[in-house]
Design brief:
single chain, about 220 residues, alpha/beta, Rossmann fold, 7-stranded mixed beta sheet, two-stranded antiparallel ribbon, 6 helices, about 30% strand
Length: about 220
């Protein structure tokens, strides 16, 4: 399928899923004065939490309404640091090389339907990290043991063209809202390894979606080579 960035730029901010919580492992890779880039920050849930802890945070997203919500939320929370929110495409970040200590992607790659775009995004994350910097990545894993997801993977394949991807429909119009991809462990590991990272930490987890479904998940820390 073609890039769905235009779909995500138009989706209502309140409809952007934000169920994942930051894993505690991130605490081991952050430090006072740490500069963090939140790629696909959405309405700012993770960015504002990190800013409230005193970190210097920049959140980027392609959805203008979500960024407005993120900024409004940061102002109401009186964060120790004021996060900066910027509308941009994750495939071409407007930052110099080695500008950040840590990059986070919280349930973001699942929204990228193109394998080439996923690789470009990881390479960009690597570029803007300092040497030895870390990428924190939490995302959904394929869940074939679940009848719900097994049927969706199979039935949606003619549309998604990629095994492990599912279609989400707009409840009002019943049109396709977006496509989400669930990864295999091998797929996610080699995505990082092939684009500049070594795996520093890897954990299998279980996440709960906005609709209450339980789905496999992965939490990964990659170190820039």
């Amino acid at each position: 399928m073609k890039s769905q960035s235009s779909s995500w730029s138009r989706i209502q901010a309140k409809n952007i899923p934000t169920t994942l919580e930051l894993d505690l492992i991130l605490n081991e890779y952050t430090f006072p004065g740490c500069k963090i880039l939140d790629i696909g920050c959405g309405s700012g849930k993770a960015s504002n939490l990190l800013a409230s802890l005193g970190f210097s945070v920049t959140g980027v997203d392609i959805n203008t309404e979500a960024l407005r919500m993120a900024k409004s939320s940061s102002e109401s929370q009186n964060c120790l640091q004021i996060p900066l929110f910027i509308r941009t495409d994750a495939r071409a970040l407007p930052f110099p090389d080695a500008a950040f200590n840590v990059v986070i992607m919280q349930a973001f790659l699942t929204t990228i339907v193109s394998k080439d775009d996923r690789a470009r995004i990881i390479r960009e994350a690597c570029r803007v990290l300092e040497p030895g910097g870390y990428l924190y990545l939490a995302d959904f894993g394929q869940t074939w043991h679940s009848k719900v997801y097994r049927e969706r993977y199979i039935n949606d394949l003619p549309v998604t063209k990629e095994e492990g991807s599912i279609v989400a429909y707009d409840e009002g119009t019943e049109e396709i809202a977006y496509v989400a991809h669930h990864f295999t462990e091998k797929e996610l590991v080699f995505l990082l390894i092939d684009n500049g990272f070594e795996i520093e930490f890897f954990k299998r987890d279980e996440f709960v979606t906005r609709t209450g479904n339980r789905v496999n998940g992965f939490v990964v820390m990659g170190e820039k080579r």
